[in-house]
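Methods, example record. To illustrate the input and output format used throughout this study, we show the complete record for YlzJ-like family protein. The sequence lines were provided to the predictor; the line carrying structure tokens was produced by it.
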Amino acid sequence: MILYTMMPNELIYPTADNIFEKQSIVSHNGVELLVQQTENSQYEIIRVLSSDPNHYLNQQYCPGQKLSGDLCQFYQ
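The corresponding predicted structure is encoded as:
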């Protein structure tokens, strides 16, 4: 079967819900981030959710960086 579409694979073939259970939105120094919990109570940055272009240029908030859970303010 061939799909001729511009839609990304994630919309056509969604991932399992258990992958998203570990993810949460946090605020770190006023920057909103999507993070995923790792083994030793740290959080890995998945995505920057800020609208400020300077936050995307800051290497502190690059995807893959680790944050301590103590420094993050969690949203419900």
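Annotations derived from this record:
The chain has three helices and five strands.
Strands lie at 23-28, 31-37, 42-48, 66-68, 73-74.
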